[in-house]
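Example record for the data management plan.
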Amino acid sequence: MGSVDSLAQERREKKGPFHPENNLGGVTMRARWMGIGFAILSSILLVGTARAQGKQITLTWTAGGVGGGWYSMAGGFAEVIRSAEPDIVIKVIPGGGTVNPALVNKKECELGWGLPFMNAAAFNGEEPFKEKLTNLRAIAGGMSMNYFHFYIAADSPLQSMDEIFGEKKPIRLALSPAGTSEEWVFQKVLEHYKTSYKELEKAGFTFFHGNYAQQASQFKDQNVDAVFTFLALPGASVTEASVGRKMRLLPFPKPLLESLAKYGITEGKIPRGTYPKAANGDQEVVTATAGSVITTHKDIPDDVVYRITRAIHENLDKVRRIHGSLETYKLEDGPTGTGIPLHPAAEKYFKEKGALK
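Corresponding structural encoding:
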């Protein structure tokens, strides 16, 4: 028995070249080839459309120091967004509170963490920024309160920031590099005490600048006596340092908090039990605090920003699991505490959801 193709060929030969079923030059065969051609063309168009629709969008998010809350949270948000919008891929890079606005303003990074007081200073061209960074926009604010931590070895005889900086009693201090928000605020702390790096160094102070992991390592290895840092609670590097060496958290004095208030920095409290290994871990510690803002560039397409805003706020259960500081975040917090205007697409989303009038 022959194949299907050979039997069909035999039947065509018997019926003749001009039979309707075998009309190689007639309407039926032309229609058949036209149909095949149309099907092929349609397939090509469909594949092209699918590829266009599925084109990967790669964005860069400038966060904070490696090992810090900002860095890990940005990675968590990237995963939440990717799970909801598979074609949006976000790469996280180290950054800082004072460098992020400039990177986003120049669109060298499409996304960045920001702080209300630094955002406002950047937008208005105030210290430490040399020009107005008016391309900055916000996607969401009020997102994770960050707390200043000043911790010192538990066996140190020094008991307060007034004693250390006001009376210039020398210590070896670790803090973040220049260009980070905490280092900028540390300079404001020194201004409150009417002193400077130079004057303190003359008095015998030494300063180590490094990332969060390095700060903790220097403290554990007893290369520094104290650390000044700015992290969401609980700060991983602070927890790490407390496990390696007994520490004590020092409160921020009321006059210092009043001085910092003019920069949009508010009073906060590190709850008891946050750092159980600390010598005073069972006590509430008064400190300074500020929230986090997801910033972007004004020219990032509305569709992209809207999808990111939607992905975050329609998956708040996942967002709250990213970090302990996000457990209380809710939709209504999004339009608040940004320090800069909302991106129009984010504003549209919040209005649709009733979080903004």
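Summary line stored alongside the record: Residues 1-52 have pLDDT under 50 and may be disordered.
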